[in-house]
Every structure is written in C-alpha cells, then in structure tokens.
UniProtKB/TrEMBL annotation:
This is Diffusible signal factor-reguated Ax21 family protein. The lineage of its organism: Bacteria, Pseudomonadati, Pseudomonadota, Gammaproteobacteria, Lysobacterales. Residues 8-104 form the Porin domain. Coiled coil: none annotated. InterPro entries: Ax21 (IPR026364), Gram_neg_porin_domain (IPR033900), Porin_dom_sf (IPR023614). It comes from the Bacteria. Keywords: Signal.
Length: 188
C-alpha cells in the first residue's frame, strides 16, 4: 500500500519537475527605448529583469517612463510578477505570467493620476536557432479608476551575440494602441 502511494505521488509530481526548454533562460536584465503609438503617442525608456528561482518559476519586474508627445506629462509604469514555464518540446516552453502593475502620471490639473492594476498572459517561448529565441503571448490587463480592462497580444525576439549579451525586441498590440521596446539584454 505504501509503495502504491509513493508511486502515485511521484507520478503526480512529474509535470512539475520539468525544466525550462533547452537554451531558454529566464535570468536577464535589459534596458532600452520604449514607444507607444495610437490613441496616445509617447516615448521614453524601460528597464526589465527576470530571475529564475526554480526550474519552472521566475520573478520578473520592470520600470518604464514615457513622455506624451507635445506635452510635459510623464507616465511612469511599474510591474512585478511571477511566471511559470513548462517545457512542451525540447526547445519550447509554455509560459504563463501574472503581475501587479501601476501607472503613475503624477498630478494633472490638481488631481493625482495613478492607477493600480494587474495583468496575466499565456503563450509560448522557444529557441528558434542557436542564437535566436522568440515568444508569442496573449494577455489581459485591467486597472482601477475607470480604465477598462483589455486583451492584448505580444510578440518578441532575442538575438544573442555571445553567451551573455544580446538584443531584445518586443511589440504589444492592444486595440488601437501599439507599444514597442528595443534594447540590449544581459543574460546569465
């Protein structure tokens, strides 16, 4: 009876014992240029990072600041979250993430404009070539304070120049608004 229980427990835990796909890492730090176009046009910078604390889990976070064109209004955004990755092929991960987010525009016309929210996304990330990986995600984000929640799509790629340095590009499509990022990435 004890052997049967142990065997069932091991069998049940096997899906949680997988590692990240071969060549895909969740340990990085990147910074670069960020821009938004659509209902609002803005540009600025963004700093992001991720650290794997388990073969299948990582924490991630970031900070960005953009100035809306033809104004002196800056919008800062913060995010922190946790992600889960599960190898579904030797070079491909299923990726799921959830995050707390905050938008802060400061004081506008005597009113403080800051919004707390959350996002969740799911998709795939895989090594497409020895020095090139990409990801495709769909997500949903929602903020308090009258900002309606919305679905979005995200596409991105990383080109590695060597074992540690590379370039990341990311595009997020959210209705009439498109956000994009490009910048160097340090991976370990």
């Amino acid at each position: 009876m004890k052997r049967s229980l142990i065997a069932m427990a091991l069998a049940a835990s096997m899906p949680f014992a997988a590692n990240a796909a071969e060549g895909v890492t969740y340990n990085y730090l990147q910074a670069g240029y960020q821009a938004t176009s659509g209902d609002v046009d803005a540009d600025g910078y963004d700093v992001n990072g991720s650290v794997a604390f388990h073969p299948n889990f990582h924490v991630f976070g970031g900070f960005g600041s953009q100035e809306i064109d033809n104004t002196n209004l800056d919008i800062d955004d913060y995010r922190i979250g946790v992600g889960y990755n599960l190898e579904i092929a030797p070079r491909t991960d299923l990726l799921a993430r959830v995050a707390y987010q905050k938008l802060d525009a400061g004081r506008v016309l005597g009113q403080e404009l800051d919004f707390d929210g959350w996002s969740t996304e799911v998709g795939v990330r895989g090594l497409l070539a020895r020095n090139f990986d990409g990801y495709a995600l769909v997500g949903y984000e929602d903020y308090d304070g009258g900002i309606d929640g919305d679905f979005y799509g995200r596409l991105g790629a990383n080109v590695a120049f060597n074992a540690n340095w590379g370039l990341n590009g990311d595009v997020k499509f959210n209705g009439d608004v498109t956000e994009w990022f490009i910048g160097p990435r340090f991976t370990w």
